[in-house]
Amino acid sequence: MKVVMTVAGSDSGGGAGIQADLKTFSALRVYGTTAITALTAQNTRGVESIHTVPSSFVVEQMEAIFKDMKVYALKTGMLANADIIEAVADTCRKWEVKNLVVDPVMAAKSGDRLLEEDALIMLRERIFPQALVITPNLVEAGILLGEELDTEEKIKEAARQLHQMGPEFVIIKGGHFPGDEVADLIYDSFRFRFSRVSRVETTNNHGTGCTYSAALAALTARGKAMQRAAEEAHNYVHLGLQQGYNPGQGTGCLHHMAYYYREMD
What we know:
The chain is about 40% helix and about 20% strand.
């Protein structure tokens, strides 16, 4: 079983962050390890408080794993601030991390900010050049480039610009674009390809971005080529949304074990 690491924040409500990543890793048959960057007090209604972990301790967590295990893929989620981003970037370079999947988490589904403003430059300059793939949604891609992406041509141009920042692949997730279909754009500097599924009308969508990037990390760790991994990750999230549920009073979450529960039914 391949070892995969997630460097991200903890979601006490269980729907996103480290918790979603570990559920996804288990569902997709890889062994999950963690380095926690921040503790959040949150539930389905929103984030009540955030306690950021010192960057030195984030590094200690990562190095404890690297010293003992072979890590086949690493994904980053909530990195919180510039100090943590710099520390994670340096550690990934030191240990020559392969299959680095970067989910540029900037805000929770509730709208609560999860990335400080001064961290954006550090993210673009230190993390993106090491990435196998970055996975912003339309809003995040727009923030990274300072513009609204409201047409297909703008989205394609955004993919080109983000690719110039260093990642091997750019995937711009299309869930925020209106229509009956959700189309994720995959760009590798040579061509644009789309992964398309029908839209699931649901409010149980907390953690979709974390889950998608975790699925990509798991699948690339298992040797899947990017186009195949992107399609399988998209389908995994789509099934999870179809069977999503709400354990609380706010925004519900997708079902990370939907495939297995379906089989048992």
